[in-house]
Amino acid sequence: MGSLLTLGTLQTAMELGFIYSLVALALFLSYSMLNVCDLSTDGCFILGCAVGATVAISGHPYLAIFAAMGAGVLSGFITAQLQTRFGIESILAGIIVNTGLYTVNIFAMGNRSQISLNATDTVFTKAKALLAGTPFADYYKLIVAVLFVVAAAVLLVMFLRTRLGLSIRATGDNVDMVRASSINPARTITVGLCVSNALTALGGCLLGEYQKSSDIQVGTGMVTIALAALIIGETLSRGHGGIGRRVVFVIIGSCLYRIIMAIAMRLNMPASALKLVSAVIVAVAIAMPYVKQSLSDHRKKQAAMRISEEETEDVKC
Amino acid sequence: MLTLKHVTKTFHPGTANEKRALNDLSLRLETGEFVTIIGSNGAGKSTMFNAICGTFPVDEGAIFLDGKNMTGLPDYRRASVIGRVFQDPMKGTAPNMTIEENLALAYAKGTRGPLAFALNKKETGFLRDSLAEFGMGLEDRMKTKVGLLSGGQRQVVTLLMCTIVPPKLLLLDEHTAALDPATAQKVMEITNILVKRHCLTTMMITHNMSAALTTGTRTIMMDDGEILFDMSGEQRANTTLETLLSMYSAKKNQTFDTDRMLMPD
């Protein structure tokens, strides 16, 4: 069978890991910081992919990036408004927007469920042309992905250190304290979801350009995949340290997840089994700390039950 | 400074649980007054604080602070001029953020643009010095998550957060009741220092009647959503615990119903 990973599959895994880490970073902001489970992530990912592809096909490869992010901001804004202004439960607001986005996404792709970018200029083809003939020519995809992720991560960390960023973190932690600091939590939730959905859409846009097609199925299960990456990263960082360190670990988590997937593929696992594998990874990663604690408690109880009464000294009253 | 004009609030109106929590309540506080508030459970003390802070809209009446009608403003807007410390030490701070991040958020209260960095060297130094003077050693733990602190330490951080930008009104809702006696005393000392330094107009709810008479400049007893007595100056100085209780019995034609209020903390 040879080695578990060839250099080629490792490179592909890293490329995908970096692209998908944008979605993991989006969930880091909405799920870990704001404490909102944003279920519009799947639809928003496709939205970024669809809008980016359509704009790129019309001949604007760079504008495509910003158009996709703008569409993400809009989607996040609507999710946030449903929560803060109309009192819809955050999970439900995400589901509602996700449902509506299906139609929007089909519409954005010109009433088709799939469009091809084979003959289209994208940031990847631009990079390929730029790097042709240099020693980095083979790595152009990885370089583009890394550049985008590093830029997004640096901006995200800087943003979380501003007053607004700090109040977004506090909103998920203690919303009463945010109000007492004279900050409107509806505003912090809105800004937070706009930024996080912009990241999700950017991820979708890059993936579409990476695999040269946009497809209405491309975002299915994205929430689970990104959560898996996020939780692997948060588990590795043990939640210690500053925001910068945690963001780096989220990106590492996303790459690790892709490597695990690549190994699963090498083991001749059918492609349709991958979703089950990611579901299992997420469930195991989230359950791990709880199970560990329960086991240790159980052992302590068992040990306590083995102590016989004679060993303890009676206290004379 | 603070004026409450005929404020009324009824909970669960039209049901069997209908409760008139504030009953045509009027009150006026001058700048720099330190009012202690006593009264049995359900007297409307915390409800009055909630009405002032805008936790819920009042049914009738109006609330003015510094000449400005606050009645229609949302809670977070009022918070720019009102500081509040709760009995529960968990309420005032964000547990997963560090001490300096908590303080920075409070310090930046509406003073700077949202995209300014929350912490710079000069400010962390200032926040650290502000905390250092309480002598609790918290200044060496600026990067510690607040969730790891004890209740008393969290209450001190909350107090500093509420006063680091001096508010026009400070509301203390039994803020030492959940602490052990020594810590409660320490927190009360720090409270007195901060109130004096910034000449804060303060209202403090307490269940300790003797403390209520010795702390501050004025004492109010509430009952059934109304003010039963309101005393200050000489009258207050000459009032003892016993006279307070007999005054209560005379007015209400019943004896005071909580033993807890007689116990020293």
Could you provide a short overview of the structure?
Chain A has 317 residues and is an all-alpha fold. Helices cover 74% and strands 2% of the residues of chain A.
Keywords:
A: 317 residues; mainly alpha; ABC transporter involved in vitamin B12 uptake, BtuC; two-stranded antiparallel sheet; 12 helices; B: 265 residues; alpha/beta; six-stranded mixed sheet; 10 strands
Explain what the structure shows.
The complex is a heterodimer of chains A (317) and B (265). Chain A has helices spanning 7-33, 41-57, 61-84, 90-108, 123-131, 140-160, 163-173, 175-180, 185-210, 222-237, 243-266, 274-306; strands at 114-116, 213-215. By secondary structure, chain A is an all-alpha fold. Chain A has one domain: ABC transporter involved in vitamin B12 uptake, BtuC (Orthogonal Bundle). Chain A has a two-stranded antiparallel sheet. The longest helix of chain A has 33 residues, at 274-306. The model of chain A has no long low-confidence stretch (mean pLDDT 90). Chain B is an alpha/beta fold and 265 residues long. Chain B has a domain at 94-162. Chain B has helices spanning 45-53, 75-78, 99-107, 121-132, 151-163, 181-198, 209-214, 233-237, 241-252; strands at 2-11, 19-29, 34-38, 60-65, 68-69, 82-85, 169-173, 201-205, 218-223, 226-232. Chain B has a 6-stranded mixed beta sheet with strand order 6-7-8-3-9-10, with helices on both faces. The relative contact order of chain B is 0.17. The mean pLDDT of chain B is 87.
Q: What structural class should be given to the helix and strand makeup of chain A?
A: mainly alpha
How far the N terminus sits from the C terminus of chain A, by CA atoms, comes to 74 Å
Assembly type: heterodimer
Apparent shape of chain B: globular
What is the topological layout?
The complex is a heterodimer of chains A (317) and B (265).
Chain A: H1 7-33, H2 41-57, H3 61-84, H4 90-108, E1 114-116, H5 123-131, H6 140-160, H7 163-173, H8 175-180, H9 185-210, E2 213-215, H10 222-237, H11 243-266, H12 274-306
Antiparallel strand pairs in A: 1-2
Helix pairs in contact in A: 1-6, 1-9, 1-10, 1-11, 2-3, 2-4, 2-9, 3-4, 3-9, 5-6, 6-11, 7-9, 10-11, 10-12
Chain B: E1 2-11, E2 19-29, E3 34-38, H1 45-53, E4 60-65, E5 68-69, H2 75-78, E6 82-85, H3 99-107, H4 121-132, H5 151-163, E7 169-173, H6 181-198, E8 201-205, H7 209-214, E9 218-223, E10 226-232, H8 233-237, H9 241-252
Parallel strand pairs in B: 3-8, 3-9, 6-7, 7-8
Antiparallel strand pairs in B: 1-2, 1-4, 4-5, 9-10
